[in-house]
């Protein structure tokens, strides 16, 4: 006795298998299937079909016409309606289906009379496009979040890091580049001298300026911002002149913070207290610092001996000292460089009155 082959019933198949079958059907077969039941219509309507051409024509002066559909694969379909009833029950639903599920390469429409067909086509033509998918920030990967943060300007970062503790950690993990940061005490505000903090980020090149007169203003408004900038910034130039008190307050604040990183400053131009001078030399990252510029006018006697004990000083590419008062500082620096065999290409710029006679006498055997 031979067994009859098993013939599966379409209605017994799971939707996943039905979808696979519908995906392999040509356009005419899909049309026939969607007319069998409401559930099959729902399944077919999910699938889109590539259509090379759709022509919709209406007879001039009559609410009747035809539609021709040429799919990318399979046979073409032509629906002709010769009366208003078939136009309403056959052509209009078919037009809706084609326009909803078809990816149409070319659409040719000729509709003359105001009526149901024209009304439906206008609805389709004027229908607003679907909103693009909105992504939830919390669902994005950390790598993608970091890329977005790196595109933000500085003010946006500051606002964004206030939204949640996790976002603050993420924002603070992304370094931000500054063209310069300046804290100077010779600015003006309404015809009076004041202190000014200004900085410019590399991302936007937009300058931010804050002016203040009182120490209380600095501690309340400027100090937290400056500490944060030094913590997360890669700074091409950090300049501070005539702000001895404020820099000492800044250093005291940073010293109390656990795990504060080395300062990523490339050019350090500073006139500060003796304590602050050495603090910066200890706390700047040698991998970044290239140029040091300072002056002697803040000191009775410039501490050149101790200044030159810091490797970050004699390893800098450029060292510039203003108002040196005496050329012997130049001799002391050069002797230190000879002692440690400084790298070729290192530049020393010294601004001092007087002649170089003593210098020439000291190094005459090294000068050709």
From TrEMBL:
<feature type="domain" description="F-box">
    <location>
        <begin position="140"/>
        <end position="180"/>
    </location>
</feature>
<dbReference type="InterPro" id="IPR001810">
    <property type="entry name" value="F-box_dom"/>
</dbReference>
<dbReference type="InterPro" id="IPR042317">
    <property type="entry name" value="She-1-like"/>
</dbReference>
<feature type="domain" description="F-box">
    <location>
        <begin position="13"/>
        <end position="53"/>
    </location>
</feature>
<dbReference type="Pfam" id="PF00646">
    <property type="entry name" value="F-box"/>
</dbReference>
<protein>
    <recommendedName>
        <fullName>F-box domain-containing protein</fullName>
    </recommendedName>
</protein>
